[in-house]
């Protein structure tokens, strides 16, 4: 069988994915973001529809297990908006969960991930995990081990939240070295927050995908480096490893509120990439690369 992308409406050929927001959220909740939940299906549909009106065809929701991803809502939103939606399983940093609940679940994480990827009513197509700032704590290592086991059992790609864009090479060492995950199955997120072109090139040279999940929030202040970071990877011969996402994590960040939201990828960033780096690069980043990055030989 050839690789396919697992969407909430079933598996599709990679070429059918189209213009893709490679990292975003339609629903999300966390005690860290109390009062800022993404929990409104109407607002989610409005955001998807606005994205589709600009040519958007697919959104990958990186909301992992236990953070209110509302998988039951996603098929209807996908049908109504005519946008492919890929859901995630996995687990974020420990601060997003109840500590006692975590201790009870560590031994069953891989089983949970595999179930959500292969047997849940609405199946996930991505395993999302997270590192810590400039290191990998014990929680991250346990979740990474479970994600690797689930990857080997299913073929699912793994997306990694890099805190502040850091510890990318540590993640590669752990997942590719210790746990034998093929680099081409890894998507390392938030690297625009750590705009070191040497690290970006090292990740791409290893064969993993470099995800620039912008626009930045105000406290990151790295938007002005984004195109330089993309250009540096292109100049190094790695335009085939770049992904772009919006990472909308609060209701205020949506285009229906005061934020740029999902549409900004296509209304703001795509024209700049086309104008300043080239249309071929824009197509690679938004269409060709996601079709490979999120495809798997499902088992």
TrEMBL record:
One Pfam family matching this protein: PTE
Annotated Gene3D superfamilies: Metal-dependent hydrolases
Positions of modified residues (N6-carboxylysine): 128
Keywords noted in UniProt: Hydrolase, Metal-binding
InterPro entries xref list: Metal_Hydrolase, Phosphotriesterase
Membership in a protein family: Belongs to the metallo-dependent hydrolases superfamily. Phosphotriesterase family.
Name used for this protein in its record: Phosphotriesterase
Source taxonomy: Bacteria, Bacillati, Actinomycetota, Actinomycetes, Micromonosporales
């Amino acid at each position: 069988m050839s690789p396919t992308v697992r969407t909430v409406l079933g598996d599709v050929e990679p070429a059918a994915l189209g213009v893709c927001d490679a990292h975003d959220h339609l629903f999300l909740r966390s005690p860290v973001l109390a009062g800022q939940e993404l929990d409104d299906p109407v607002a989610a549909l409005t955001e998807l529809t606005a994205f589709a009106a600009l040519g958007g065809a697919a959104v990958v929701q990186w909301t992992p297990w236990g953070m209110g991803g509302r998988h039951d809502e996603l098929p209807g939103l996908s049908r109504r908006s005519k946008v492919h939606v890929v859901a995630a399983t996995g687990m974020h940093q420990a601060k997003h969960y109840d500590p006692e609940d975590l201790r009870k679940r560590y031994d069953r994480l891989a089983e949970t991930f595999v179930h959500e990827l292969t047997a849940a009513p609405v199946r996930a197509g991505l395993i999302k995990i997270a590192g810590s700032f400039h290191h990998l704590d014990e929680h991250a290592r346990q979740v990474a081990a479970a994600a690797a086991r689930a990857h080997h059992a299913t073929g699912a790609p793994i997306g990694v939240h890099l805190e502040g864009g850091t510890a990318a090479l540590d993640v590669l060492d752990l997942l590719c070295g210790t746990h034998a995950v093929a680099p081409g199955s890894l998507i390392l997120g938030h690297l625009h927050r750590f705009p070191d072109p040497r690290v970006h090139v090292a990740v791409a040279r290893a064969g993993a995908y470099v995800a620039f999940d912008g626009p930045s929030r105000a406290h990151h202040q790295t938007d002005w480096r984004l195109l330089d970071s993309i250009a540096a990877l292109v100049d190094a011969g790695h335009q085939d490893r770049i992904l772009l996402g919006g990472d909308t994590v609060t209701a205020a960040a949506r285009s229906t509120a005061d934020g740029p939201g999902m549409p900004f990828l296509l209304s703001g960033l795509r024209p700049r990439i086309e104008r300043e780096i080239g249309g071929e690069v824009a197509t690679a980043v938004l269409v060709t690369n996601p079709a490979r990055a999120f495809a798997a030989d499902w088992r």
